[in-house]
Amino acid sequence: MSTEISAQTQSAAQHPRRSFWRTVNNYVALTKPRVMELLLVVTVPAMILAQGGLPNLWLVLATLLGGAMSAGSAGAFNCYLDRDMDRKMKRTKNRPLVTGEISDRNALVFAWVLGALSVVWLYFTTTWLAAALSIGAIFFYVVIYTMLLKRHSEQNIIWGGIAGCFPVLIGWAAVTNSLDWPAWVFFLIIFLWTPPHYWPLSMRYRDDYAAAGVPMLGVVRGRATVGLQIILYAWATVASSLLLLPAPGISWLYGVVAVTSGGYFIIQAHRLYGNAIRGQEGKPMQVFHGSITYLSVLSLAIAIDPLLPF
Question: CA-based diameter of the chain, in Å?
Fold first, then answer.
């Protein structure tokens, strides 16, 4: 054992630069950058819609940085609290707290520091409301979702998904220091979108979640039941997206994009359900990735529409 530790120490000494960047990459992994990227995708469109045009570039960058730190903090807390489950799941076996490349204590300190920085940064560079919403987002994801719902309810992702809606409110509040009705409609769209986005993933990794004792809908219910729920939420998501049509800066172009991209999303959901009722697994990951495409296209339409001259 001592020989192995000595070899590792010698290797680190010979490659300090590689070790430094490996450590940096591990801390970045704690922030769940893929989730963070998806959250930031909706922040800028919310800011453009709130401004009715292009906001100040510095304000956009400041909000994105604060939002990234907020989401990263929530992700790091999640990794710390779920480290026991992550050790039982194949898809999370390479996370830094599972491999031991970052200690539990360091991960917790990192999460607290990043969260505090996000609040302070948003307070001094944007608005007090955006900073307060950052606290709310972290609290909801860490306490409501991770600590209270995830291990105990099949409805976990429905209500826990509210945390993923906060970036829209943060972006809007950063521009206006208020929360007008279009911000809440955008919030509703993401709230309804989250279950049909995540449930296909729970179907794909059903065995993983079952091994970790997580009662995701894909674990506790059959494929047909999950497929039907995905359809219902997909339809509700597309219907809610049309509520933005009366918003200032939104035109018929957004309506066309909302209907066509929503139709694609709904078709994917129906295909998955059709396979499920025939006793086939289908392609849940196709729906998962399709949902990301749908939200990205819809967000792009929200961002572009207020900038058009008609």
Answer: 72
Q: Is 257 left (phi over 0), alpha (psi -120 to 50) or beta?
A: alpha
Task: Check if the beta carbon of residue 44 is closer than 8 Å to that of residue 60.
Answer: yes
Q: Which pLDDT tens digit goes with each residue over 65-109?
A: 999 999 999 999 999 999 999 898 888 888 999 999 999 999 999
pLDDT digits (tens, 9 = 90+) for 83-92: 999 898 888 8
- Flag whether the pTM goes above 0.85: yes
On whether the CB atoms of residues 272 and 282 are closer than 8 A, the answer is yes
pLDDT digits (tens, 9 = 90+) for 240-260: 999 999 999 999 999 999 999
Which pLDDT belongs to residue 8? 44
Question: What are the CA-CA distances from residue 179 to residues 46, 133, 175, 200, 208 (Å)?
Answer: 11, 11, 10, 32, 39
Q: Is residue 226 a contact partner of residue 199, using CB atoms and an 8 Å limit?
A: yes
Nearest alpha-carbon partner for 289 in 264, 270, 256, 258: 264
135 CA to centre of own chain? 16
Instruction: Find all residues with CB under 8 Å of 222, minimum gap 6, and list them.
Output: 276
Look at residue 245 and give its three-state secondary structure: coil
End-to-end CA distance of the chain: 71
Residues whose CB falls within 8 Å of the CB of residue 306, separated by 6 or more in sequence, listed in order: 48, 49, 51, 52, 53, 248, 249, 250
pLDDT tier, 17 (very low <50, low <70, confident <90, very high otherwise): low
Q: What are the Cα distances from residue 6, in Å, to 2, 10, 13, 97?
A: 6, 6, 10, 22
Cβ(171)–Cβ(47) under 8 Å? yes
Q: Exposed, middle or buried: residue 137 (CB in 10 Å: 0-12, 13-18, 19+)?
A: buried
Are residues 180 and 51 in contact, defined by beta-carbon separation less than 8 angstroms?
no
> What ranges make up the beta strands (E) of 207-247?
none
